[in-house]
């Protein structure tokens, strides 16, 4: 019998490992690069911590730790929203701007590889299977 959950886990590990390898020369982690990509893909100046939590499905405390390290390493800065000082905007620094294009290029290359290897119908099924795992809640 095929253990599909294990296959998903192995695939996830490989994706993370490849992103970590890309990030290492920049003194970053794969997760940090993914966050840089997420912030870069949004309109500048309006990324909030809670959006990062939702996008990456991580706890507030985990997100806070990652963002604190990124801020310490000079990749981001946090500024209070003008109308709500409790909310912080996450902004990329010039240091993060220098690596974001390489992240975007890597992600596009991976996307292109999948699109060349698999048909649109196969990718639709793949997306459906992954969505099942993402959306599934244990009761």
What proportion of the residues form beta strands (DSSP E)? 5-15%
Shape call: globular
Low-confidence stretches: none
CATH topology value: Arc Repressor Mutant, subunit A
What is the total number of structural domains? 1
List the helices and strands and how they pair.
Elements: H1 4-23, H2 30-41, H3 49-56, H4 60-72, E1 76-81, E2 84-92, H5 94-117, H6 120-135
Antiparallel strand pairs: 1-2
Helix pairs in contact: 1-2, 2-5, 3-4
Describe the structure.
By secondary structure, the chain is mainly alpha-helical. It has a single domain, classed as Orthogonal Bundle (Arc Repressor Mutant, subunit A), CATH 1.10.10.10. Helix content is 67%, strand content 11%. The chain has a two-stranded antiparallel ribbon. A hairpin with a 2-residue loop joins strand 1 (76-81) and strand 2. Helix 2 (30-41) packs across helix 5 (94-117) and helix 3 (49-56) crosses helix 4. The longest helix has 24 residues, at 94-117. The model has no long low-confidence stretch (mean pLDDT 89).
